[in-house]
Amino acid sequence: YVEKEEVMEYLRLRKDMLDAVCISGGEPTCNKDLKDFIKEIKALGYKVKLDTNGTNPFVVKELIDEKLIDYVAMDLKASPKKYNEVTRCNVNLELIKQTIKILKTSGIKHEFRTTYLPTLDSNDINEITEKFVGKDSKYYLQQFRNTVTNDPQYHNFMPHKDAYVLSTANFVRQNIGACGVRGISSF
User: Fold this and answer.
1) What's this model's pTM, rounded to 2 decimal places?
2) 3-state secondary structure of 181
């Protein structure tokens, strides 16, 4: 844990070197002080990117409406049928869909992304892009890295082969028009 004042002092001292701050999580929209924190960051002249899982559409909308965020990256964890399994909790998919709609209609720059867990396959990714993303949005597949996870269960899982990730991305591009890939050496 880092005290807020320590973060703000860090940002004050680096105004000439940095131009943006990414607020990530856990899920930052669960923090009741998020709006005030962002206001302080914006007061220093920084742009703000929000990383979210999309479970709090009303918070996301309020931040957009008040022009407190400049970019949003939303994680889409799994296909609808696997969402609860992957997240290990009951997720209200209607809230996820509301956040997606807010982002798509707000005019704010945004992207959707999915970490390509070994428990997901190309059919899941296709379903994610068809049911959630649709056309005219940035979408990224992120390679799973078993060494960068807080869940020890995933340490023994092997990531998909790069060729499979690229093949899935090519299939997605054919369906929705765009799909970037992150975290593989051959892209």
Assistant:
1) 0.93
2) strand
